[in-house]
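#onboarding

Welcome to the new folks! Below is a worked example of what a typical request in this channel looks like: someone posts a single protein sequence, and someone else replies with the predicted structure as tokens. Don't worry about understanding the tokens yet, we'll cover that in week two.

Example request:
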Amino acid sequence: MEPKIATSFLLLTVVFFLAGTTTSAAVKPSSSFIRSSCATVTYPALCEQSLSPFAETIKTSPAELARTALAISLKQSQSTQAYLNKLKKFKGLKPRERSAIGDCLEEVSDSLERVSKSIQELKRCDRVKGQEFIWHMSNVQTWVSSALTDENTCMDGFGGRVMEGRIKTSVRGQITSVAHVTSNALALVNSFAQKH
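Example response:
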């Protein structure tokens, strides 16, 4: 009797395991789509980590993937802008630091505006084809590329040994985060443009 019970239990365990595997396989296409798409960008781990929570929305759509990547870049830019605004009010800043933060804030605000325009322009791509699609897509690529340049330019004001210190390190951390997600977004936008 006991061997039969053991066999039945083993059989049940295998059935439950297989049922669990099938369920995870149903979720897999969107996750593997994100993974394979992120494999082509400059920062693949960050790409996968930031986009995975949106797998259900993205499914296997390159357009949705590009849109979500831009939305992540926009959110990161807003967060960096808010951070720089707070930092600018800090009382212990040296005049050069305050000036560099002000310049950086301007660059980040420009970047934010360009990414925001790109998201709107990408929505227009859904409704057009042919030359019109290429034109709208070209706008998106130009603006995201310019946004990335703005973010990188932000650090120029912190050049030289005189600017070394906590403020520069702190600003660099913020700018690096936003530049990395924007770089990934640009790669995914370019990939979507090529597939269309």
